[in-house]
Specification:
By secondary structure, the protein is of the alpha/beta class. It is built from five helices and 13 strands. It starts with a strand and ends in a 6-residue tail after the last strand. It binds zinc ion (ZN) (2 copies).
Length: about 220
């Protein structure tokens, strides 16, 4: 399984453009998921193009929450490739979306791939099970990292966390994790790096992270 950051506040590779927002492509054997779409669809598509990612390979878009910096690019993306969209229950789908699934409760979306459900009425996170270990991908972590990790842990042990962590500063919560890749709105990136240098992974547009395939 391959996770490629295609939209982020920071840049990892030359030739890509950073902007406030987040999106990543998660390529697995059963399904290719676009997690969030950044703020600007043209920029999203441009970064994908530079990364050699054909939008045609994407099977589904998973939106963490309705904020513009995660959902702003959705309409433009659907103009290029019409795919099912998985949204938190409280978020209104754009007119272009033809097939929409609204999520309230935690559920298995594909074998070994789950949503935490819409937590605190605002945001869902993606959970991928790889054997006994979990990868959790978050948008802004508005419901709080502790609540997200707790919701995810019903499916196994959280080993990897990727995404925007906002003002999260209870770093001891990450003790059981193997890696953390704080991106986007994370205010304390440097502090996380200082606190957990062995777990910390640099993000940025163009960053590619490899994980084992999901196991249902
Ligand atoms: Zn955000
Ligand atoms: Zn947000």
């Amino acid at each position: 399984m391959k996770l490629t950051i295609v939209y982020d506040n920071e840049r990892w590779s030359e030739g890509l453009v950073s902007d406030w927002g987040f999106s990543c492509l998660i390529q697995t054997d059963p399904v290719n998921i676009l997690f969030d779409t950044g703020a600007n669809g043209l920029l999203l598509l441009r970064n994908m193009n530079k990364l050699g990612v054909n939008p045609g390979i994407i099977d589904v878009v998973f939106i963490s929450h309705g904020h513009w910096d995660h959902m702003g690019g959705l309409s433009s993306f659907l103009g290029v490739k019409q795919v099912p969209v998985i949204l938190p229950a409280s978020v209104r789908a754009p007119g272009r979306a033809e097939e929409v699934t609204k999520i309230k409760e935690s559920v298995e979306l594909y074998p070994g791939i789950y949503t935490t459900g819409e937590l605190k009425g605002i945001e869902q996170s993606l959970v991928i099970r790889m054997g006994g270990e979990l990868l959790v991908v978050v948008g802004c972590a508005h419901p709080g990292v502790a609540n997200i990790l707790k919701a995810a842990s019903q499916y196994g042990e959280v080993a990897h966390l990727v995404g925007g962590l906002h003002g999260f500063d209870d770093f001891s919560l990450l003790e059981g994790l193997k890696t953390v890749c704080p991106v986007h709105c994370t205010q304390h990136k440097l502090d996380i790096k200082l606190f957990w240098p062995d777990k910390w992974v640099q993000g940025g547009v163009g960053r590619v992270l490899e994980f084992p395939e999901p196991v249902g």
